[in-house]
Amino acid sequence: MPGEAGQGPGVVLELALGRGVAASSGTGGEGAGLKVNGENGHPQAVLSAVWLKGRTRGQTTRYGTSATIRGQLARPDGGKVDDAKIELVYLEAGTVRDMGGARTRKDGSFVIKLPSNSPSRKLQLRYRYDLSKQDVTSKVELV
Q1: Are strands 123-127 and 85-92 parallel, antiparallel or unpaired?
Q2: SS3 105
């Protein structure tokens, strides 16, 4: 929901028309081995996404139909995060399975097109600020 507070310091997830779930952010300092995800990457970046259905946007989509997800990754100060890896996973019976993802454009936007035979419609998009760790900075669930 717009403005939903996250569990970590300063983490906020905004998802217009979707159901957002904020992830806790890592509290570790920036040290050796840090691999920043994207130009202008930020440990408190905000990930947002919606299903596109023709010319409308929604929070759900029918199973068995092709679908498109459109989203954006931004810094807390409003700056955009360019060339960041957005991970796409699906959740099924307590397991998490990788479905690839996308890279953000210069304006922080990304688009993911899913075929009609996608295995699930309970999907999660993830942004990890530090690619050398598995900590998820921000995540969004779409059903």
Answers
A1: antiparallel
A2: coil
**How many residues can be counted in the chain?**
143
Amino acid at 102: A
Taken in order 98, 100, 102, 103, the sign of the CA dihedral is: positive
Say which residue the tokens 């690619």 belong to.
Answer: 131
pTM recorded for the entire structure: 0.72
- CA dist 87 and 89 (Å) reads 7
DSSP code at position 26: P
Q: What tens digit of pLDDT does each residue of 60-113 get?
A: 666 777 888 999 999 999 999 999 999 999 888 878 888 899 999 999 999 999
Pairing verdict, β 46-53 and 67-74: antiparallel
